[in-house]
Design a protein that fits this description.
It contains eleven helices and 14 strands. The chain is α/β, with parallel strands linked by helices. The radius of gyration is 33 Å and the shape is rod-shaped. InterPro entries: LysR_HTH_N, LysR_subst-bd, WH-like_DNA-bd_sf, WH_DNA-bd_sf.
């Protein structure tokens, strides 16, 4: 139903969209039978709805004289309003259908910088190719910040590293992948652990100068913890960078870094990649969303594509 205010008179009331549709049909055809055929309803039903609309508005809308149908002043006042209301309703219907069919929409996705570099480009390309009308908003940050943004509703989905820094029952997490970490270095610098080594141990990083991520970066905490577990404190050549900066510093020969294998695979020929000897280092990437609110339709579709990758 729709509320009409002051239509040619001091009147406030409620009418039905269907009644407006019937009214416009009669106004345009100036014939009740042809109007009924136009809107696919029996003529007596249409006439009853027009009379009900007139009673609701407290004014006659048509002059009925010897089969000739004309609009009254009240009808003339109502006609442009009714047309606009019906047009707006049709626009709204198409907008909702487009959202439901993913012609339009928005996905707010959070991810750690390393995931943005390694995992997301191919998945987001596939999603965009399938749903070009859906706007993608990507926020890069650490897992701690992403969890906070999810909790306050600023993100629909987030790719985070498990275990979460602050586990929360308000979030649902689904494990997406388990990725091994590798050591990257400049091809022009001595290989970590010695020339010809196909793998390197964490213990071999003692004495190596590391290019280290900023505080709050998941990879920083993981690398430092692994070094300390081997009984030494890592030495930093430079610290404080994001993923692209760290790779750039490694290419320049400032030191070595521990990065995810997917990131190393995209780094190109400018770096040497050496696997970590067993048991190695791994990280678990999970897809997280709020437990109390289902993600929007477009976000659910991206979630499905990520889980099926």
């Amino acid at each position: 139903m729709v509320r009409l205010v002051s239509i040619g008179a001091d009147y406030h009331g409620w009418v039905q969209f269907q009644q407006l549709q019937y009214f416009v049909a009669v106004a345009e055809t100036r014939h009740f039978t042809r109007a009924a055929e136009l809107v696919h309803v029996a003529q007596p039903s249409l006439s009853q709805q027009i009379k009900a609309l007139e009673r609701e508005l407290g004014a006659d809308l048509f002059l009925r004289a010897r089969g000739n149908i004309a609009l009254t002043d009240a009808g003339e006042a109502l006609l442009p309003l009714a047309r606009r209301i019906l047009a707006d309703a049709d626009t709204a219907r198409h907008e909702v259908q487009e959202l439901a069919q993913l012609r339009r929409g928005r996905v707010r996705l959070g991810a750690t910088p390393s995931v943005c570099t390694g995992l997301l480009p191919d998945v987001l390309r596939a999603f965009h190719d399938r749903y070009p009308g859906v706007h993608l908003l990507v926020e890069e940050s650490g897992s701690h910040d992403l969890v906070r943004h999810l909790a306050r509703g600023a993100l629909d989905l987030a790719l985070v590293v498990l275990p979460l820094p602050t586990p929360s029952p308000a979030l649902t997490t689904v494990e997406l992948l388990r990725e091994d970490l590798v050591v990257v270095s400049s091809p022009e610098a001595p290989a970590p652990g010695g020339a010809g080594r196909r793998t390197v141990r964490i213990a071999d990083l003692e004495g190596e100068r590391l290019v280290m991520f900023r505080h709050g970066y998941d990879l920083r905490e993981l690398t430092v913890a692994a070094c300390r577990a081997e009984g030494f404190e890592p030495e930093f050549a430079v610290e404080g960078g994001e993923m692209d900066a760290v790779l750039g510093f490694v290419r320049a020969g400032l030191g070595v870094a521990v990065v995810p294998r997917m990131v190393a695979a995209r780094a190109g020929r400018g770096v040497r990649v050496t696997a970590l000897a067993r048991p190695g280092l791994f990280r678990t990437i999970a897809l997280a969303h709020r437990s109390d609110v289902a993600p929007p339709r477009a976000a659910r579709e991206l979630q499905r594509m990520l889980l099926e990758r």
